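User: As part of a screening pipeline, I want to sanity-check one entry by hand. Below is the sequence and the SMILES for adenosine-5'-triphosphate. Please return the complex as structure tokens so I can compare it with the automated output.
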Amino acid sequence: MSEHLLSIEGLGITFGGLKAVDDVSFTVRPGEIVSVIGPNGAGKTTLFNMISGIYLPGRGKVMLGGEDVTGLAPNLLAQRGMSRTFQNLQIFQSMTVLENAIAGYHLTERGSVLADLLNLPGSRRRAAAAAEGARALLARVGLDRAADREAGSLSYGALKRLEIARALALSPKILLLDEPAAGCNAVETEEIDHLIAEVAASGVAILLVEHDMKMVMRISNHIVVLDHGEKIAEGEPAAISRDPAVIAAYLGTEAGETADA
Ligand SMILES: Nc1ncnc2c1ncn2[C@@H]1O[C@H](COP(=O)(O)OP(=O)(O)OP(=O)(O)O)[C@@H](O)[C@H]1O
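Assistant: Here is the complex for your manual check:
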């Protein structure tokens, strides 16, 4: 448990003179739930995008399992054990729930398109294994009975869980979740809480960006706080919630603009 799985070392990026993220470092261990919080514009999404290979960092390193993965493309990161979900749902609404879960297995696949077209035995075997794995994932996120429904007919909370199921298809060591509870009601948020806790309990590290402060305080083992691109605090939820620098950062933003705590 003590080994660091993800190590963020002095990450930074500048957009047209603005230091969107400046010298941010922290670590995540297997099975740990780490949340990144901060007022609007603090740099959370930009940090996430650098860690997950969408932006090339201007400075610093991303180490995954002791290997330097800075700037690797998302599909290569997925092969090395990092998956992510996005703030805006990336679900194929007109496909079934099962087909969406199966899509997660094809993210990094090297199988030949020609082999698939010719329906060769290898392709058939891969497809059968993906379907079987996808059904197991749907059961894990409580969607097994919805497998054959069109994804577009699901509730918002169920779609969020489907997205997490798809991200789990490649058996990641670390899962990056960008606002998993955004747009969810209290019951749906609680279901997502339980799912995240269950995934972490299975040994997968979780890195979370979330605006729902009550959820963050409930489920995080460790919280990293950003303000104006810089890390201003990190620690356990109880300590973070009474940290004067954190309180000042949130009070400094427009009233009601940040957490719903
Ligand atoms: N592609 C970009 N080009 C220029 N500036 C950007 C870009 N992306 C983000 N920024 C700026 O960088 C800063 C950090 O933005 P970022 O979206 O990372 O913050 P955030 O903490 O995720 O905010 P929110 O909570 O509102 O999602 C902001 O000042 C933003 O305007």
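Points to compare against the pipeline: The pocket of adenosine-5'-triphosphate is lined by residues 15, 18, 20, 38, 40-46 (CB under 6 Å). The domain at 1-81+172-261 is CATH 3.40.50.300 (Rossmann fold).
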